[in-house]
Each structure stands twice: as structure tokens, then as C-alpha cells.
From TrEMBL, chain A:
GO biological process: DNA repair
Active-site feature positions: C88 (glycyl thioester intermediate)
Name of the protein this chain belongs to: E2 ubiquitin-conjugating enzyme
GO MF assignments: ATP binding; ubiquitin conjugating enzyme activity
Xref: SUPFAM superfamilies: UBC-like
Species this protein is from: Dreissena polymorpha
Organism placement in taxonomy: Eukaryota, Metazoa, Spiralia, Lophotrochozoa, Mollusca
Keywords recorded for this protein, A-Z: ATP-binding, Nucleotide-binding, Transferase, Ubl conjugation pathway
Keyword ATP-binding set for record: yes
Record field: transmembrane: none
UniProtKB/TrEMBL annotation, chain B:
Species of the source: Dreissena polymorpha
Record lineage: Eukaryota, Metazoa, Spiralia, Lophotrochozoa, Mollusca
Matching CDD domains: OTUB1 (cd22763)
Active site: D76, C79, H253
GO biological process terms on file: protein K48-linked deubiquitination; proteolysis
Name under which the protein is recorded: ubiquitinyl hydrolase 1
């Protein structure tokens, strides 16, 4: 059955294909329009440059009235990303507006990479290094940028790393 | 003694909070339809008798003499918008005098919002659904069908979203005048992003003033508070107009009243 959420997600997908914002991409998984895979390319002139970071976006029937759950699948080192990959970003929580679509979500996360908010840390180590030792922060980020390429070659790597 | 709270930096508290909110919403949803059938006052006052003597006095001694029925709405923070939307469209089903004017206003509202900088792509989706429902009313759908539409969470919320967007658009357009009515040190755009557009944000006077203005649909609100007065206070938005819709307010919630 077509519900407003599913109809809207088809529209979001169409728009993302016809008018893709620079540096992000996303598509529904094969048999489930409510679950998307997305990729954000690390923005230029940031320590994340050249990284290809994978995410999942999980929608409910309440979309777009409620925000989806967005998670990094690729390993991330960022002041506003939790260890489990979930993201602390106001527009995905209490400042969500139904006027946002998938494009807007992905570009907002992209600019969060560029511009972290150290006042609401989800990863204390990253927040502290970002504030106090930018060189070390950039080193740690460079490591996960490298790891993000490995994901591309072998999807299982992520799991293996976590279990190691 | 309550267990001491120990902050765990590895834990995602945002998600825990959101999950708790979802549980609370579900509990309310199981108890109350988005829009109820018409209920006679006797039944309503029975319900209040348990919880509140002052409300019961005001219903028995005042409201009951002036109104016959009430429709209850779900207390989900959207009740003003949903009550207003339903009550007005229900009114149009029986009296189409205002229909053509309203349809024109609603039809043109999308380009107004786009002019104000709202993203056309997403606005369009809400506007289409809103106009479909107005179309149903124009074609004289049954009251049951309208009630069903408003109790379908997806459709019903789309209508609420569109009304919220209209309020946001109006306030931003008239920001010079309305800025002095908003609390805190924030711009009108920030206020709209935080207090108007997100679903579930409760409505204040400023929301009511904006919605009645932008749609040209006057509304009467009966205020039933816990004050000592035996009667409800009423207020008409805008003042000196003839209301097409009457809502019952008790702190934090709006229902619909009928004569």
C-alpha cells in the first residue's frame, strides 16, 4: 500500500537522482524503500577529504513528520558521532522540520563533518582533541579516512574490525 | 532513595530520550483517536469528575448551557492545528459559503511560501495532500470520510504540517510586527524553526493569530482554566469577527465545541 511516507520517499529518491547535491549519494536498499544506504564524501579542505563514508538511513511511516535514524556504518572519528555511528545533530532530533528531505539530511551531515559542534560532544576524545590538539585530531581522522577506503574493497571489514 | 545518575560517555542519551518519547506517544495514541466522535457534555463531565472539580463546575454551570457537544483531540502537541483544520473543513461540508474564497487562498499559498524561501520540492508534497482534502470537502464527501482522513495518521499529519508551514510563512513575512511578541533572544526565523515547524510543538496565541490571519478563518476559543471564576473566558481571533470554528482550551490542550 502506498502511504504518505513511501510516496514521499519515492519523490526524495527521484530528486536525489535528478538533482544530486555535490559529494553525497543515497538510494533505497533493494527490497525496502524504508531503509536507505548513503555515502558522504569527505568535504574538501577538511581532514575528512577523500574519505568515502557509508551510512544507513532508517525511516518510519511517520516520515517526513518525524526524522529518520541516520547512522555511520563506516568507522567515524568526529566530536558529534557516537561510537555506534549515530549522530548528534539538532535537525535529526528536536529541530527536525518536515520540509527537510534526504538531500537536506545528507548535506547537513556533510557540513557537520566540516564544522563540528564541540559543545555537544558525542565522542569525548574527538571533542577534546578538536579543541586542544588539532594536529592529533587530524591524525586520527586521517586514519579513519584510510579505513573508509578499505570498506569499499571488502564490506565485511567493518565487522571484523569491531570484533578484533 | 533514587539510584544515583552516572554519566556514561559511551552511551547515546539522545536515542534513549527519543525512545522514551516514542513510548509515551504510543501510550497516548492507544487511548485517544486523533479526532473523536461528537460527545455529549454529560459524558465528558463524568470523565472530569474524577480528575477535576473545577472543570466539572465550569462544564455544568456554563459550557453545557451554551454548547451541546465536544469532539476530543489527541494531546500530541498538534491538537490546535488538527482541531482547527477538522472543525473548519467540517463546517465547510455543511455550509459552502466560504469554500471558494478558502480554496483560492489555499491554492495560492504554496507560491507565497516558495517566494518566502521555503523549499518548493518538499512544500509541494504537503500542499498537494492538503488540496486533495479540500477537494474532497468541495465534492461533499461524507462526514465519516473526513473523520477517517483526519484519523489516518499520515494524512492527518500532512494537514497539520501544511498549517504549520502557513503559520511559519505568515510570521516570517510579518516579522517586523510580530518579533516583539516572541520570547527569548531569537530571530523570527529561529522561532519558526524551533516552535512552529516541528511537529508536536504546542501552539500559543501567536500561532492562533497567524493561522486565523493567513487563512482568513476567524476562531473563538473558550478558555477553561483552574481559576475561581464559574464561567469560561472566551476570546475571538481576530477580535470583532464572526467565528466559524469554536475550540475549547484547557491548559495545554484544544478540543472542538459545537452548538
Amino acid at each position: 500500500m502506498s502511504t504518505p511516507a513511501r510516496r514521499r520517499l519515492m519523490r526524495d529518491f527521484k530528486r536525489l537522482q535528478e538533482d544530486p547535491p555535490a559529494g553525497v549519494s543515497g538510494a533505497p536498499t533493494d527490497n525496502n524503500i524504508m531503509l536507505w544506504n548513503a555515502v558522504i564524501f569527505g568535504p574538501h579542505d577538511t581532514p575528512f577529504e577523500d574519505g568515502t563514508f557509508k551510512l544507513t538511513i532508517e525511516f518510519t511511516e511517520e516520515y517526513p513528520n518525524k526524522p529518520p535514524t541516520v547512522r555511520f556504518v563506516s568507522k567515524m572519528f568526529h566530536p558529534n558521532v557516537y561510537a555506534d555511528g549515530s549522530i548528534c545533530l539538532d535537525i535529526l532530533q528536536n529541530r527536525w522540520s518536515p520540509t527537510y528531505d534526504v538531500s537536506a539530511i545528507l548535506t547537513s551531515i556533510q557540513s557537520l563533518l566540516h564544522d563540528p559542534n564541540p559543545n555537544s560532544p558525542a565522542n569525548n576524545e574527538a571533542a577534546q582533541l578538536y579543541r586542544e590538539n588539532r594536529r592529533e585530531y587530524e591524525k586520527k581522522v586521517a586514519a579513519i579516512v584510510q579505513e573508509s577506503w578499505n570498506d569499499d574493497e571488502d564490506d565485511d571489514d567493518v565487522d571484523n574490525d569491531e570484533n578484533a | 532513595m533514587a539510584e544515583e545518575f552516572v554519566y556514561d560517555p559511551e552511551r547515546n542519551y539522545d536515542e534513549a530520550t527519543l525512545a522514551q518519547l516514542r513510548d509515551m506517544e504510543k501510550e497516548i495514541a492507544d487511548r485517544q483517536n486523533l479526532i473523536s466522535n461528537r460527545i455529549a457534555f454529560d459524558k465528558l463531565s463524568e470523565e472530569y469528575a474524577k480528575e477535576d472539580e473545577i472543570y466539572r463546575t465550569k462544564i455544568q454551570g456554563d459550557l453545557k448551557n451554551r454548547y451541546d457537544y465536544v469532539r476530543k483531540t489527541r494531546g500530541d502537541g498538534n491538537c490546535f492545528f488538527r482541531a482547527f483544520g477538522f472543525a473548519y473543513l467540517e463546517k465547510l461540508l455543511t455550509d459552502q459559503t466560504d469554500l471558494k474564497r478558502f480554496k483560492d487562498v489555499a491554492q495560492n499559498s504554496k507560491s507565497e511560501l516558495v517566494k518566502l524561501g521555503f523549499p518548493e520540492f518538499t512544500i509541494e508534497d504537503f500542499h498537494e495532500t492538503f488540496m486533495e482534502v479540500v477537494g474532497k470537502v468541495e465534492n461533499q464527501c461524507s462526514l465519516d470520510e473526513l473523520l477517517e482522513t483526519f484519523n489516518n495518521q499520515g494524512l492527518s499529519d500532512y494537514i497539520v504540517v501544511y498549517l504549520r508551514l502557513l503559520v511559519s510563512g505568515f510570521l516570517q513575512k510579518e516579522a517586523d510586527f510580530y518579533s516583539c511578541f516572541i520570547e527569548g533572544d531569537r530571530s523570527m526565523k529561529e522561532f519558526c524553526n524551533q516552535e512552529v515547524e516541528p511537529m508536536g510543538k504546542e501552539s500559543d496565541h501567536i500561532h492562533i493569530i497567524a493561522l486565523t490571519n493567513v487563512l482568513g478563518v476567524p476562531v473563538r476559543v473558550e478558555y477553561m482554566d483552574r481559576g475561581d471564576s464559574l464561567r469560561c473566558n472566551q476570546h475571538v481571533f481576530p477580535e470583532d469577527s464572526t467565528p466559524l470554528v469554536t475550540l475549547l482550551y484547557r491548559p495545554g490542550h484544544y478540543d472542538i465545541l459545537y452548538t
